[in-house]
Structures
1.
Amino acid sequence: MAKMFDVKICGIKTQEEVALVNRYPVDYMGLIFAPSKRQVTLEKGKKLRSMMRKDIKVVGVFVDATYEEIYRAIVECDLDVVQLHGKETNDEVIKIPIEVWKSIPVENKTSLMQIKQYPDCDGILLDTYYKGSTGGTGHSFNHQWVNEYGDIPKKLILAGGLSPDNILSVLENLVPDVLDFNSGLETNLMKDPLKVDMLFNKIKHYEEEMEDE
Ligand SMILES: O=C(O)c1ccccc1N[C@@H]1O[C@H](COP(=O)(O)O)[C@@H](O)[C@H]1O
């Protein structure tokens, strides 16, 4: 059976977290270079990248960084994808020489109209709008708005408060190209082995059920 969606685990910041995530069928790991509780330096990102399983693609997360900062991270940490989480424009997206995902902060149905401002990005990442924060808040939005919006002619990455507790009800409503997990897999800001295991058990059962239907 063809794979229904990819899985990204973001906010990786320690060697222990890389070793944990390497044991699961993960497609992307995310390194946050923006100011955050999960921020890593280029040096740390490079080290963590070298420990990741070779088939896993690495996503660098930035908030209103300069082109030079992004380019340096692409080269030093051998990034596969750049995720832009700030007020970057389509003109900035075009310049980036690798795959780019632009995050859209979703506050209400009309927030989704912003997708049209990014004709040149490869992926649209939908995350929950949260006043005073750029990401990693653990809050979800109403996924029904995405179905009502209609076709999104890009890779669709769904983020915002996804966790082992809500993943099955999320998938009842919406099956994106990539499911993006971050704070929902943490305890005390560290990826929690029990939560990660619970997530992949649920995904496995979901895929088996879909195969039987
Ligand atoms: O996680 C962060 O600290 C962060 C900081 C700045 C920009 C983005 C950040 N994380 C991204 O936010 C979404 C949703 O995360 P969550 O599941 O709600 O915790 C995800 O794409 C992270 O990559």
2.
Amino acid sequence: MEKLAVIGIGRLGLCFALNAEKSGYEVIGIDVNQEYVNQLNAKTYSSPEPLVNEYLSASCNFSSYTDIKVIEQEQVNIIYIIVPTPSQHDNSFSHSYIESVVSQLMELKKPEELKHIIIGATVMPGYCNELSVKMKDWNYSISYNPEFIAQGSIMRDQQNPDQILIGEGHPDATIFLKNLYARMCISSPEYHVMDTLSAEITKLATNCFLTMKISFANSIGDLIKRTGGDEDKVLSAIGADSRIGSKYLGYGYGFGGPCFPRDNQALLYFAKEQKMTLPLSEATIEVNKNHLQFQYEQLLRENREEFVFDYVTYKKNTDIIEQSQQLELAVKLANTGKKVILKNSNHIKHSIELMYPGLFYYE
Ligand SMILES: NC(=O)C1=CN([C@@H]2O[C@H](COP(=O)(O)OP(=O)(O)OC[C@H]3O[C@@H](n4cnc5c(N)ncnc54)[C@H](O)[C@@H]3O)[C@@H](O)[C@H]2O)C=CC1
Ligand SMILES: O=C(O)[C@H]1O[C@H](OP(=O)(O)OP(=O)(O)OC[C@H]2O[C@@H](n3ccc(=O)[nH]c3=O)[C@H](O)[C@@H]2O)[C@H](O)[C@@H](O)[C@@H]1O
């Protein structure tokens, strides 16, 4: 049975590990969080992500550890890294968690046979090349394989990708990934194999394009709200043109969450470093802000004293409030003195109360 190590078995890494296990691999999970690792091994961990709990309890060839030495002991040749890459003040991503993993790998014995590191975390363009240089005498290749998955459907999205993006560090790593996805995917994805820099840019640019589409739809929708007309019918007709497509072209709240806003900002940072500008991405962010203000003024014009929000997470069925446009709108209304009731928010009430004590009513 082929072995694979996944370092960083959080939201994304755990799903990837479980999908790989279900596809016939022996998967070794490594994470710094001892209590979490214990729960995974005891199969007592409970995830809000669909399918995770079922896959975890059915798994036979997935075990988790905190000590990276297991890679040496188990002679694992494929090492997938999916640790956090948080945004920094300047909007670039920090690679410090990856660096910490890499330092630990470099403390192990230098492998006699070439091993393959595959970065699944979102990184700044150019990072995999930097890492290759850093590890050049250590017998590791560095590839990039980001995933296009959405919170709330991570397992299914991993099984049904439109495309597999591979920034190739070594042809053997690509062969491994192609075999893995051939077993894991229900869909028949296109494979896009390229150098790591191109793949790093592709990951960010895809999210930039999607947000540009959302901002376009919301700005046309705002115009129609002002002039009269039916924004849903208009956007649905535009999306029916197969050159455009209807996905991410609906009218609603602005985009938010832990991925879209930061990927936009990171690509802008990268462009700035190259002394370039990306006016479309700048406008996308601006439109998202203006749309929030438009929605706020629109609601104020309704002259109501009370507003009810069905959910204030950045999208339905998650527990994430990071960069939630809905929550920002609710805050703006409540700060104007309106009574704002948040429904379905018991699971996030504590976090909201910490940030905005006493501002909302809950149902
Ligand atoms: N969650 C998602 O939907 C998506 C996430 N990504 C990217 O994937 C990466 C990871 O994201 P998430 O899974 O959401 O993060 P997460 O925070 O849920 O999981 C990261 C895990 O890494 C562990 N970790 C941290 N340092 C470690 C170390 N030195 N050794 C071993 N484990 C360590 C943490 O304990 C945690 O369990 C980020 O770069 C993110 O941008 C990309 C696409 C989608
Ligand atoms: O790079 C990432 O980390 C991931 O970011 C997003 O995943 P996610 O943020 O979980 O979820 P989406 O469902 O795409 O929603 C993102 C934001 O866009 C908004 N959105 C989405 C769709 C839409 O039609 N309109 C719209 O405003 C959502 O409400 C939300 O605020 C992408 O969808 C994934 O492909 C990508 O891998």
